[in-house]
Every structure is written in C-alpha cells, then in structure tokens.
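It would be a great kindness if you could assist me with a short task in structural biology. Thank you for your consideration; the sequence and its tokens are set out here.
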Amino acid sequence: MADDVLERVRATGLLGAGDDVVVLLSGGRDSVCLLDVAVALGCSVRALHVNYGLRAEAGQDEAHCRTLCERLGVALAVHRAERPGGASGNVQAWARDVRYAAAADAAGDGLVAVGHTASDQAETVLYRLAASPGRRALLGMRPRSGRLVRPLLTVTREETGAWCRARGLTWRDDSTNASDDYARGRVRHGLLSALEAVDARAAANVVRTAQVLREEAEVLDVVVDTALAGRDRVALAYLADLPPALARLIVRRLAEAATGRLCARAPTRLHDILALGESGALDVGDGARAVLSDGVLRFERTPPLPASS
C-alpha cells in the first residue's frame, strides 16, 4: 500500500526530488501523509500550520504538528490567525483565505502542497453540482493551480490513513468533520454515503468522471480560443449562428476575462443577450455586464451602485 501510494504521487509529476515545497499541515491524516510522502520523494520540504484558535483542541493540534515535524526533520512555521471581531460570513471561507495567503507568503517562489484526496474530490464535485450551475461544477479541483499543487488527488482518505499506520505516524481528527453543521459534512455523511449504498464505487466513479470532463474541457477551451481568435469581443450575428453550447462558452469566457472572476450565470443569459439587438446593455450577474454597440458584444464589470444619500 505505501509503495503504491508513493508511486502514484510520483506519477503525477507534481512533486519531485529537490522541489522547494511548503506543505499545509493541519495535523489530520491527509496532511500528515502528504508531508511524509514529500519527504520520501526527496523534496526540500517545509511545513506550515495555521492555528485559527476556533476549537478547544487547536493547541493540541499545533503541538502534534511540532512533534511530527521534529521527527521527520522538517522545519515548521506556525501562523496564528484571529478572526476580526464582529466579522460575519462563512467561517470556512475565511479560514481558507487565511491559510492560502499565509502559505503563499511562506512559499515565496516555491510550491504550496495541500492534502486534498480523491475522497475530497468526490465530495467537492457533489457539493458544486448541488450549489453551482453549469459544466464547471463537475470538473472538481485541479491537480495544479499556479504554484498550488494537490498531489493526493489519486489517493483516497482510507489510503492516507493506511499510509500513516504503515509508517507509524499518528494524526489528529478534526471534531468538526463528524458534524453536519457544515455543507461538506452533510455531503460526506448523507449524500455520498447514500450513493455508496447504491454502488460502493460511487466516489471513485465521481472522481473518474471529473477527470474525463477536465480533459474534455481542455478541448472545449481550444474550440473557444479558435472561435474568438484572440479578440475580446464578438459580433452578435456570428454568436447567434453558432451552436448554442459554443455560444454559451464564448459568453462565459468573455465575461470572465472582463471581470477576472468566475461568471457561472453569464452563459444562462445567452437568449437575453441575443435579444438586445444592435445596441444595449444587460447585467448578467457575478459582476459582469454585456454591452452591445453596433452589433458587437463585449463585456465589462458592472459599475458599483451609487452611494445612497
């Protein structure tokens, strides 16, 4: 099992001997496995633990990470975060922003490795399928996004646990993972378990489907590139003559290029955009505005609302 996991991670090409990498280390089984794998592959490894101070056991998690890094001979940096007083919104989103920002600072020009597994991938796809419209929801997490790498996406949560046991490594269990307070927990304990009751291969099938769709998405990106030929706008008559699926992809590409953010709702407004005719403007959501001038479509950011007096 251990040799198989090591070879699968090596085969991804995401981590290799001598690579400068910061591993985000929570102390859970997946990040413990990732840290040990990175050491076994001969990477130049450092670890970063973010202590949010949100749980009573946070101090014990940090202490465990220190002990583990001493054992493996890995330098550990600890970033202590405190949520601003009175802050509202998604706690998990805040924590994610904090750890990725801290990791980027710590890594410099090196890589940042996170311990997302095939199990996490399956849960992500199912969650996005429920919460987000469009094909992109089914693509899952990318193995690499800039300097961020996910070397364990071909490894299941059960396999990271088996690796740790085989190597005599202990880990910390996050008590919130067993809770249904967060959407991720409801997907894991409710939706995914129900699908696995139908077919034990459900999680693996979801992951495999996401991989196929990512590969097909690369082909579609080439088709969109060819249709736009480097332009940041398109004639409405040309757009209307295209197959609707391709027209929607072009609308999304132009909207996201103009706003610098994901615009999942833009392609759903294709019919409304085509109805604008020679000139007009339409806010399509996600901060994007479609603008028609002399029959040519371009996108811009939706202007902010005027301050109320």
The first strand starts at residue 20 and ends at 24.
